[in-house]
Design brief:
Keywords: Membrane, Transmembrane, Transmembrane helix
Protein name: Ceramidase
CATH topology: Rhopdopsin 7-helix transmembrane proteins
Organism: Prauserella cavernicola
CATH class: Mainly Alpha
Number of helices: 10
Radius of gyration: 18 Å
Helix content: 55-70%
CATH architecture: Up-down Bundle
Largest sheet: none
Low-confidence stretches: 216-222
Number of domains: 1
Structural class: mainly alpha
C-alpha cells in the first residue's frame, strides 16, 4: 500500500487537487476555534491544555486529509481522533469519577477494547461509521454514569453529556448520508459532520476543564 495514494472518499470531491473539497476543508476551522477557546479557558493549567492541543491536532490532520486526499493524511485524521477519545476517557474517569490518575489510565485500553468490539460487531452490517458508534455510546454512558453518581458536583454535568451524545448522533447520521445525497446535494453533508463534531468536542472539553482539579477519593479506594 502506498501511503501517498489518492483517496476519493467524499461526495464533494470530484477530482484531485488542494481545493477539491472546499467546504470539507474550510469547515475544519471549527475545530481550530474549539481548540483556541479551550486553550484560553484553561488559563495556565497545563493539564486541561492537553485537550486544546489534541483539538488542534485534529484540526491539522483533518484539514490535511481533505486538502490533500491521501492515505497518510487520512490515517493521521483517524489517529488523532482516536487519541482524543482515549485521552478523554481517562480525563473523564479522573475528573468526574474521582479515580486517581494511576488507575484512571486503565480507561484508555478499556475503551479501546470496547471500540474494537463494537466496530467488529457492526462492521458486517455495512455501516460506514461503525468505528464511531463506540464514542456515541460512550457519551450516553458518561451521561448515565453522572446521572447516578453520588457526587452532586459531577452529577450536574450529565445533561451536557446527554446533549453532546444527541448532537453527535445527528452528526454521525449526516456523515453516513454523505454519498447518498450526492445527486441532490453535490457538496455532500460531511462538512456538517465537522461543524457538529467541533460543538461536541468543545462541550466535553469545556465541561472537563471546569472541574479539572485533584479529587479526593473515598477512603475505600485509597
Amino acid at each position: 500500500m502506498d501511503w501517498g495514494d489518492y483517496v476519493d472518499g467524499y461526495c464533494e470531491r470530484a477530482e484531485p487537487g488542494l481545493w477539491g473539497e472546499p467546504l470539507n476543508t474550510v469547515s475544519n476551522l471549527a475545530f481550530l476555534g474549539a481548540a483556541v477557546a479551550v486553550w484560553r479557558q484553561a488559563g495556565g493549567a497545563r493539564g486541561p491544555r492537553v485537550l486544546a492541543v489534541l483539538l488542534g491536532l485534529i484540526f491539522a490532520a483533518s484539514t490535511a486529509f481533505h486538502a490533500l486526499a491521501t492515505r497518510w493524511a487520512g490515517a493521521a485524521d483517524t489517529f488523532f481522533i482516536l487519541v482524543f477519545v482515549l485521552v478523554y476517557a481517562v480525563v473523564f474517569t479522573h475528573v468526574f469519577l474521582g479515580v486517581r490518575w494511576a488507575r484512571a489510565w486503565l480507561a484508555a485500553p478499556a475503551f479501546l477494547a470496547f471500540t474494537v468490539a463494537v466496530t467488529a460487531a457492526v462492521a458486517p452490517l455495512g455501516f460506514g461509521g461503525a468505528s464511531y458508534l463506540a464514542p456515541l455510546l460512550g457519551l450516553f454512558g458518561f451521561a448515565a454514569a453522572l446521572a447516578v453518581t453520588r457526587d452532586a458536583r459531577s452529577r450536574r454535568y450529565w445533561p451536557r453529556f446527554a446533549l453532546a451524545g444527541g448532537v453527535f448522533g445527528v452528526s454521525l447520521s449526516l456523515r453516513s448520508a454523505d454519498h447518498s445525497v450526492c445527486g441532490q446535494f453535490p457538496v455532500g453533508t460531511h462538512f456538517l459532520w465537522h461543524l457538529l463534531n467541533a460543538v461536541v468536542l468543545y462541550l466535553v472539553s469545556h465541561s472537563a476543564l471546569r472541574e479539572w482539579a485533584p479529587r479526593r477519593l473515598p477512603s475505600a479506594a485509597q
